[in-house]
Amino acid sequence: REDLFYRLNVIPFFVPPLRERKEDIPLFTRHFLKELAATYGRRPREITDDAVDVLMRYSWPGNVRELRNVIERIVIMNPTTTRFDAKHLPPLVYRDGGRRVPKGEFSTLHQARDAYERDYILKKLDETHGNVTRAAEVLGLERSHLYRKMKALGIAAKE
């Protein structure tokens, strides 16, 4: 509705996107960790500098709302973890913001396969709300095999 624009545009102001305010990411991240730990009745959480570096390299097309959702996801998916590392971040953020190898370019077939398997397993875990038994069924694996793969790929299990 065009009239809505004019109603809201009384005093316009510009807020730069999060990708242009990278220095704010650690502050927002720590704030959201504290807020969400309280919301979900959990002890305060910490995040490693490595994970913050990954977050700072990501482009954040969804701005601060997307960052909050990412932090909420890792708090929910890792209920007993008190110190989050880059491996706890969702595949999209980790892939686009954290890989040392440019997206789609891997120096070995092993690296490419591991990256694909990690992303695929994380996607299936997300679809099954962190239920490893159900994810194993969907993937056609024994649960113990999926746990071994998750450990090898640095995927934290929801406990």
Topology summary:
Elements: H1 2-8, H2 25-39, E1 46-47, H3 49-57, H4 63-77, E2 83-84, H5 91-98, H6 109-127, H7 132-139, H8 143-152
Parallel strand pairs: 1-2
Helix pairs in contact: 2-4, 3-5, 6-7, 7-8
Question: Any overview of this molecule?
Answer:
It is a single chain. This protein is mainly α and about 160 residues long. The protein contains eight helices and two strands, in the order H-H-E-H-H-E-H-H-H-H. It has helices spanning about 1-10, 25-40, 50-55, 65-75, 90-100, 110-125, 130-140, 145-150, and strands at about 45, 85. The protein has a two-stranded parallel sheet with strand order 1-2. The protein is elongated and about 60 Å long. The N and C termini lie far apart (about 45 Å). The model is unreliable at about 100-105 (pLDDT under 50).
